Amino acid sequence: MKTIRNIIIGTAVAATLCAVAAPKRNAIDEVVWIVGDQPIFRSDVEELYQQMRTEGTPLAGDPYCTLPEQIAVEKLFLHQARLDTIEAPENQVQSSVDRRLEFFVSNLGSREKVEQYFRKSFPALREQLLEVMRNNYITEQVQSNITKGVKATPNEVKKYFSTLPEDSIPYVPMQVEAQIIQLNPTVPKQEIEDVKARLRDYADRVNRGEIPFSTLAIMYSEDGSAMQGGELGFHSRADFVPEFSNVAFNLSDPDRVSRIVETEYGYHIIQLIEKRGEQVNVRHILLRPKVSSADLDLAVHRLDSLRKEIVGGTFSFDEAARIVSQDKDSRNNRGIMVNPKTGSSRFEMQDLPAEVARRIETMNVGDLSQAFVMKDQTKNRDVAVIVRLTERIPGHRATLTEDYNMIKQMYENHRRQEMITEWIEKKIKDTYIKIEEGWENCDFKYEGWIKK
Question: Which terminal Cβ of the chain has fewer Cβ within 10 Å, N or C?
């Protein structure tokens, strides 16, 4: 599931919103652009202006030039989506809107304050956000179709890099490479049995019709989907770990709850909502057995003993990682940590888990840390680890030798943007466009809006 963009809300922004200056044109709503058979109203531009001010989005240039163009481009993408029959998954859209509304309420204090702030009712705000999220999803899908297949060759990357002005070559902050060995503390059998008993009770209550599954998920699930009643939206088999997929895709009765499923994340029960082709939408409740501080201390002690053997030469770090580590993402790769943002072994300090960064900051290359406790963010549990600093790369201007993957990604992003620009300008050429007097004297980003 995608992470929603952070939205900056504060009294200063609220004051700015209230003080938005009216433009020089008269205040009566009017059609300012026509794209195909779709009008763009002055009120559309004003509302987008206020939204961007609310979210702290930088506004480059005259908003009464850039924003109508932005709306017009979106209409071109939405028209293409209709031709290609691209639709947004409604459950995913609704979940995204729910999370954004929860964020508003959390930051402003109550639904009433949200309504006051946005000067519209909660249902009206929800409807507006639903439309925005649908259009965003559809636009992303159209853009993805336009740019699919972009894959740079080494020669293309080299040629692209050679054309970059020196001041456009990015500065790469100091980076590190590290290895990790992780031990998960032993979970007491009684704790596991207690968790299973709770899940069996939930399943029985749902199966007897006493309470909706979604209510129990909101009350008790330890997964991020709890606020959506445990609903995950439509996914294919590959989106879930195998143990979860095997059960979820074999469910056939929406009124019955699955058996208990154990995964690396904890223990689940699952309820079918709908099957659609090769995708399924389910709800689940996740419970994680709790680990005592004594069990966590024992895991730390075991790693300290292992550290002494590594330092003493009984094992190499690579061997110990392969044999002992319970971090599945690194144990078969000599314990090398992989940056989830880039897929490489290099991390900027802020991209490391906070506990790891604190240790590595004072270590020399080749040093091995003492055992310590860190939070496994993926599984939301405490684990014991030791880390070894294998390399520290000083900050530098990017080079092909040191930073090929970064430059390759820059080129591919550049090429995607070129393809999208080419597509937009062709679409403009083939589409009826009319810009009303007073709105056309602009330095537009794309060519062809003004028909000759």
Answer: C
